[in-house]
Amino acid sequence: MADGKIEYKFLSEEKDGRKYLTLSGRVAKSSFWTGDDVISAKSITKELENTTVPITVYLNTQGGDVFEGIEIYNLFKNHKSDITVEITGLCASAGTFIALGADKVVMDTGTQFMIHQASTIAYGNKEDIQKTLNALESIDKSIISIYKAKTGKSDEELEDMLKKETWFDCEKALENGFIDEIKETVPKQKEEKNNQSNIDIQNLVDLITDELEKRNAGVEQKPVEEEKTNKISNFSKFMKGM
Fold first, then answer.
1. Domain limits, CATH 3.90.226.10, in the chain
2. What pLDDT digit, counting tens, does each position of 193-209 carry?
3. Which residues on neighbouring strands pair with residue 59, listed in sequence order?
């Protein structure tokens, strides 16, 4: 599992003929020990029931329980709706199974994708330790089969990536076939500023046009009306902001 705790969030809404799920936090089975503030197969099953519209999942997770992640992978993989997973922060460890269960995987700019070998804590005699080792090797084969189905890479190449605990930025994840698309995000503030700039420029054009019309008509300039005062004020703000 990747280091760092991601705050739990589970939101569901439906609008414009599409269902949106926001999943953040640890992947685990809901229990007395973990509580309900986890991304669990049980909560996903409930959201998928009777859903026929396309689904977009916003995902941000450090990973967690490998078996819970694989169960959610299969829930997505076998569901009749078209599912898109958009990685909004980190997608690591068991969280990568959730992403790859979708029909389409998208990474937002600046996000990370991480894969590694299965891990656990073991105690007991050498037979006990050997059983744990055998289980981990079997789990790694299951993990490799999921990544292979998405990327088409060989078992050997994927096994090497798992051993190295490999991190991918957007470009590397796309290059290696783990995702299908990189989402380029345009900041809303920039859009609003550009829109305001266009308005202020239009105000200036209006002011100049009015003045020229007055001069051409030989009309003595009258006191500026309130609307024009606002235009001049807006234009002054625009000039100060340049």
1. 9-183
2. 555 556 666 676 676 77
3. 23, 87
